[in-house]
């Protein structure tokens, strides 16, 4: 029996998210989430296509203990760990060292850890996930798939900040971009679904989840993107401010007495949709509040929810328009992520801002999120507007399979 299961792990500072794909059957057979690690409330939830959601208390568990429990849950769910072929990890920051996914060895691990200064919350957690697997399955091949890798094709004019050049040379200060796996997946899907020439196409992809970024893809390559040195730059997000005047740190420190760290926290965790609305970071909640006639939502709350939505859409449209400078035209605009895939009103508002680009939504197709039209939600195919559900874990599984196979072939 050949091993056909690929385990995909997304290891965060206090969480471990996983999916198992059976590549022979071409389907996801197990998902699990360990949350609040290293606290008394640590919990593991998992599900398979057959079973409903199951939960286990794993109080105090660290990444290694949680991974052990996750494997036990997998086994109890009827999956044989002997069938595990390889493990693919989402790694947030590959810096300038990685422009593609790689098979993990000691040198690669050292490099991932050396890049920790670029993603101090994420890379050490990703490395911890890799070590947890190594401890339990020392012989299992592992692959790293980087959030930044797809954007390593950005030209210097797109990634260079207008700062003293020494900051780039000495400290790696530049635009890296994130959500690369998602932008890569949906752009390739759009090219296939629209039957575009793989060597000649111009796309803008908008990944709109809790974090949001847009990307200019020309001929299969990312040429520019809205997130920067960190995921704080660019679009308005759930709790992140996106682009602001860089003088604000100084101004706010003087006016409010907050420290640099406290202001950074506000910009990351208390801004964006949450900051403007004062109500929620969740787009669905804001859309409901903006349209609510219930007395539970006051008029000022309704107005603020609408303002948050309006700023979100305007800023996104502005970013999409500016990204067309990189592509030199537009064959398709692609929406993905929780908001991009599900919020028809947001797509309507954004495309309305961009109607001068020749974009025109098909109202019925947009309301059904393009599900009956292979994702097409516009009246025209040139340019097209598409809704394509992202499958980052799936692409990580594919990369993992390919790289493990390739190293056996050599
Ligand atoms: P993450 O970045 O954490 O993976 P998601 O991609 O799941 O997040 O996106 C979460 C966002 O998607 C939230 O703002 C949520 O409100 C929004 N969302 C999900 N479903 C809908 C919906 N039906 N209508 C509007 N927004 C939605």
From TrEMBL:
<comment type="similarity">
    <text>Belongs to the acetokinase family.</text>
</comment>
<comment type="function">
    <text>Catalyzes the formation of acetyl phosphate from acetate and ATP. Can also catalyze the reverse reaction.</text>
</comment>
<feature type="binding site">
    <location>
        <position position="17"/>
    </location>
    <ligand>
        <name>ATP</name>
    </ligand>
</feature>
<keyword id="KW-0460">Magnesium</keyword>
<keyword id="KW-0547">Nucleotide-binding</keyword>
<feature type="active site" description="Proton donor/acceptor">
    <location>
        <position position="147"/>
    </location>
</feature>
<dbReference type="InterPro" id="IPR004372">
    <property type="entry name" value="Ac/propionate_kinase"/>
</dbReference>
<dbReference type="InterPro" id="IPR000890">
    <property type="entry name" value="Aliphatic_acid_kin_short-chain"/>
</dbReference>
<feature type="binding site">
    <location>
        <position position="392"/>
    </location>
    <ligand>
        <name>Mg(2+)</name>
    </ligand>
</feature>
<feature type="binding site">
    <location>
        <position position="10"/>
    </location>
    <ligand>
        <name>Mg(2+)</name>
    </ligand>
</feature>
<keyword id="KW-0418">Kinase</keyword>
<feature type="binding site">
    <location>
        <begin position="338"/>
        <end position="342"/>
    </location>
    <ligand>
        <name>ATP</name>
    </ligand>
</feature>
<comment type="subunit">
    <text>Homodimer.</text>
</comment>
<feature type="site" description="Transition state stabilizer">
    <location>
        <position position="179"/>
    </location>
</feature>
<keyword id="KW-0067">ATP-binding</keyword>
<protein>
    <recommendedName>
        <fullName>Acetate kinase</fullName>
        <ecNumber>2.7.2.1</ecNumber>
    </recommendedName>
</protein>
<keyword id="KW-0963">Cytoplasm</keyword>
<feature type="binding site">
    <location>
        <begin position="282"/>
        <end position="284"/>
    </location>
    <ligand>
        <name>ATP</name>
    </ligand>
</feature>
<dbReference type="InterPro" id="IPR023865">
    <property type="entry name" value="Aliphatic_acid_kinase_CS"/>
</dbReference>
<dbReference type="InterPro" id="IPR043129">
    <property type="entry name" value="ATPase_NBD"/>
</dbReference>
<keyword id="KW-0479">Metal-binding</keyword>
<keyword id="KW-0808">Transferase</keyword>
<feature type="binding site">
    <location>
        <begin position="207"/>
        <end position="211"/>
    </location>
    <ligand>
        <name>ATP</name>
    </ligand>
</feature>
<dbReference type="Pfam" id="PF00871">
    <property type="entry name" value="Acetate_kinase"/>
</dbReference>
<feature type="site" description="Transition state stabilizer">
    <location>
        <position position="240"/>
    </location>
</feature>
<comment type="pathway">
    <text>Metabolic intermediate biosynthesis; acetyl-CoA biosynthesis; acetyl-CoA from acetate: step 1/2.</text>
</comment>
<feature type="binding site">
    <location>
        <position position="90"/>
    </location>
    <ligand>
        <name>substrate</name>
    </ligand>
</feature>
<dbReference type="GO" id="GO:0016301">
    <property type="term" value="F:kinase activity"/>
</dbReference>
